[in-house]
Write a structure and sequence with these properties.
mainly alpha; Arc Repressor Mutant, subunit A; two-stranded antiparallel sheet; 7 helices
Length: 119
């Protein structure tokens, strides 16, 4: 189990949001859950570049931060579904705005990222 070596710096809103949303797949997980993809297998199909373990860790962190909730159905095989809490739903417009900004600057960002990868 991962144990944090240093305490996070939580002096402003940017620090707080970074602590909650830091993780390669967290914003996509929130977005896809909001879009109706609630089962772990559905989320895995939507984000094929992520391992199941990493998705589970990040879903657990989102759950710990009360952005998502989980329903476990008492069936065999086990069935789990995730949902956005009201707190999590409040982030959807912010994630949408970030996505729109990325779309607006798509070409420039791709060029810069590719340039930095090659350096």
């Amino acid at each position: 189990m991962y144990e944090r070596k240093t305490m996070p710096d939580l002096n402003c809103g940017l620090d707080l949001i970074g602590e909650v949303l830091y993780g390669k797949w967290k914003m996509r997980l929130l977005w896809f859950i909001n879009e109706g993809f609630q089962r772990p297998s559905e989320l895995q199909r939507k984000i094929p570049g992520a391992s199941r373990r990493v998705l589970n860790v990040q879903l657990k962190e989102l759950e710990n931060h009360e952005l998502v909730g989980k329903v476990i159905y008492p069936v065999v095989p086990p069935k789990v579904e995730y949902y956005l809490t009201d707190f999590g739903k409040s982030l959807i417009p912010v994630i949408g705005a970030i996505g729109q900004w990325g779309d607006q600057h798509d070409q420039r960002l791709r060029t810069l990222i590719e340039k930095n990868i090659q350096s």
